[in-house]
Write the C-alpha cells for this entry.
Amino acid sequence: MTGTVLHIGAHPDDEDIGLLSYMSHKFGVRAVYWSATRGEGGQNRIGPYKGESLGVFRTWESLASRALDGGESLYGPFIDFGYSKNGEESLSKWGSKEMVKKIVRAIRMVQPQIIVSRWKGISDDFHGHH
Ligand SMILES: [Zn+2]
C-alpha cells in the first residue's frame, strides 16, 4: 500500500506511537507526526533540562521514537509556554491565523491522504495547547 498519513499534535510526546508504527510497519505508508511545539515548557523529573534545552531534548526523544516506529517528525514554530487552561489562551499567544497557516504548510509539504488529530479540541483534552 502506498499513501501518507499526517498525525497532528501540540507537543513532541503527544503522538500516538501505536498509530504511527501500525501505519508505517503494517501498511508501509509514510506516517508523519507534526508537533506544534518542541515541548520546552513541560516538566522534566528525570533530567536537568529546562526551557529551550528541554525542547532540544524532547526533539531528540521524538526523533529517536520515529527511528523505532518508522515515522517522520515535523515541528511547528510555536513556543510551549507551559500549562494552559484553554485553547483560547494558547491561540491568543500563538495566533489563530498563524496556527492555521503552519498546519496548512504541513499539509502542503506532506500531502497526506489521511489527517489524524491527536486531540479533539475539547476540555477533556487535558491541556489548552491540545
Ligand atoms: Zn501535549
